[in-house]
Amino acid sequence: MAFSSLVRLTLSIALISSFVFDVICFTPPPRFAQTSALIGNKIYYMGGVVPLPEPIISDFFYLDTSILSSTDSTTLPWTELTGLDNLFTSWGTAVAGGANKDLFVLFGGNMTPAENSSLVIVYDTSSNTWSKPTISAPQGEPARKIKTQAVVDSTGKMYIFGGSTSPDLDNSLVNDMSILDTVNWSWSTGTQNGAPDARSDYSATILNNGVIVYIGGSNLNNRYVPMSQINTYDTNSATWANIVSTGDIPSPRGGHSAVLTPDGRIIIYGGAFSISADGQYTAATPDMAVLDTTNNNFVWSQPKAGGTAPPQVAYHSASLVGDYMVVSFGNITNKGPSPNVYVLDTKDSYNWVTSMNTNTSETNSSSNVGLIVGVSVGCIVALILLGGGLFWFYRRRKVTEEVIETPGEFTDAGFTRRYESMNSATTSQNSHDFSKHLTSANAESDPSKEFHPSYSHNFPVQHDPEVEDDDKEFRILPQELQPEYLEKKFNNNDNI
Ligand SMILES: *[C@@H]1O[C@H](CO)[C@@H](O)[C@H](O)[C@H]1NC(C)=O
Ligand SMILES: *[C@@H]1O[C@H](CO)[C@@H](O)[C@H](O)[C@H]1NC(C)=O
Ligand SMILES: *[C@@H]1O[C@H](CO)[C@@H](O)[C@H](O)[C@H]1NC(C)=O
Ligand SMILES: *[C@@H]1O[C@H](CO)[C@@H](O)[C@H](O)[C@H]1NC(C)=O
């Protein structure tokens, strides 16, 4: 009996520990098609497609790149924030908007539940508040779009070209240019004159002279745009132009990323293409290519990056932080969603590195390490406190416990009743149920009731009639930690 209690206590500590790791020591699950934007030194992320039959997350978090000294995703300085109205979002696009470039401005994408969705949602990173801004639209509001890539100019205007107005890509690709003023909150429309064909999954990069460079992506029927064909939109003159680039031209692709270096190189990374109707994707080659925009003719090159190249992703995020290109998440071609962050040093030669030397101003690498160690130590301290607290609680309850027998009743109303039902003689039927050995023999010392208060109101239990009852022990966990969730998470990759 003492042994069973010990097992139960240990199990509880283990379960709570994993909960703490998940919530306090936040590590975001793998995903692709998330929306992201670099604001200051922080990359903000929202939602994305996760490997489950149904999307269940709408998390919102940031990665503080100023203390990024290792790219091991379990020790990265992630910080979870609160999302908006239970919204689940994927395939949207976001920029750093507002007069101070401190707003996370998210346009479009798939957004559910519909009752709470909004064409534009805004997170103010200074006041940590969400809003759904009222936007004037003298020429009408644009349609909700997915698979676009917005850019923002120095005055806070967000340019959203093309994309798809419904998940049915073949019938819904568009080539209009919607412009959102993120300072004065108004919509306007760019010219269609000279605009390229309708397309999605391209990359967009705004140069310092205000010219937006559109690269790659796909037109109707999976026809990919040749990478030699560069389309530009000049935000000063509101005109489209075609540029035929030269040099070592990479293969066509969609879902790639593009970042601009201070000296005028556009580095594209990743992406994939699909030539068959079966939806199979092939990684585009090479994974990385560079378009030099410094002279008026655009020239491609395909430098080989040193270090260990990451598995090739599409529909990932990429931001340039200092001299480093930070690549995060994405769909690993033929494998599925990635949880990882990779860093390419773009300064002298191209090198995949495992840590960043963010040596700007006062911060040096030793203080960076200190901060990360601080985060981990914080987690460990939280765990020890929790474990200790639980042990104390357990001991105390054991002394003062008074048992009230309740008839077993199988219900989802909450943990309390559920736990009682699993401990009643009629439903205890397998070896995983530690209480089996206790209930009939000696109900008074049944330790199972001791954890009611900490759980009953925290996690509503989802009862899935398909799942055998032998995992009841674990099903008091939040959904993210349930074995069947984790199994699906790592095995089921065919959700889009
Ligand atoms: C919509 O948002 C409100 C306010 O945050 C929230 O209470 C409600 O649950 C949301 N609706 C759904 C269906 O999640
Ligand atoms: C916003 O409005 C103010 C005042 O009406 C104006 O001075 C400013 O130029 C506008 N900003 C943008 C980006 O249009
Ligand atoms: C994501 O990757 C999976 C596994 O390779 C693949 O089946 C799926 O089509 C991909 N989805 C997209 C949108 O690239
Ligand atoms: C980093 O900072 C240290 C101390 O401030 C300085 O000595 C060193 O040169 C810097 N390294 C780089 C690469 O800037």
TrEMBL record:
Residue ranges crossing the lipid bilayer per the database entry: 369-394
Compositionally biased tracts (Polar residues): 422-445
Pfam families per UniProt: Kelch_KLHDC2_KLHL20_DRC7 (PF24681)
Signal peptide: 1-25
Keyword vocabulary terms for this entry: Kelch repeat, Membrane, Repeat, Signal, Transmembrane, Transmembrane helix
Protein name: Galactose oxidase
Region: Disordered, residue numbers: 422-469
